[in-house]
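Title: Prediction job returns without error message
Component: structure pipeline
Severity: low
Priority: P3
Assignee: unassigned

Description:
Job completed but the reporter wants confirmation the result is attached to the right record. Sequence as submitted:
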Amino acid sequence: MANPPPVICVDGPSGSGKGTLARAIAKQLNWNILDSGSLYRIVGLHAHSFDVSVEDDDALKQVVESLDIQFANERRPNIVVNGRDVTQAIRGEEATRYASLVAKREKVRAALLVRQKEFRRPPGLVADGRDMGTVVFPDAKLKIYLDASPEERARRRYAELKDKGLNVSLPDLFQSLKERDAQDKNRRVSPLKVAPDAFVLDSTGLSIAEVIGQALAAAKQKGLQINN
């Protein structure tokens, strides 16, 4: 593609608020959005549904290639896969468990790399994940690394789950989050790391509005037109 549409990447650890920030930026710019984390949940859900072994790389690759994925935006409030609303289903226990397993498979990641690049369409794309700026879109117009302390991220997750009426333990969430951080940063394929040219935004102690404001200011500095 001679002049590919611009991309803004929002990378960071689990619970840092990447999805919230990415959706806010996409809304301001009226761009497309890519929730890369949901891709692994979608593949995990379908692998489970069709009894595909997480050890069968070729079958998993076929699953990836068979999926027509449409992410939520202002016109489409839900995540739709092959005509089915999977917004809630991919948050289920089985999808979550399978997602962590298929994400370790190199052939799955390679197949999803191709699919992720396909979301780069006019007028632009906001992509959130863990390797968007380092692996998938290294030429992104703006790379944001959104971070927060483990304590803050665990607290946010705790509040979110409690609001949903779930009985959760803050110490357990904190420990789980630390383990997830270690796994993401130390995995052999596409580890979580800060791109050398990333704008690092620590959201600890900041409101959502303050985080969005700083991110949009960084976008303006890159020459992107922000809608009022």
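Comment from assignee: result matches the submitted record. The beta strands are 7-11, 32-35, 69-70, 80-81, 84-85, 125-129, 142-147, 199-202.
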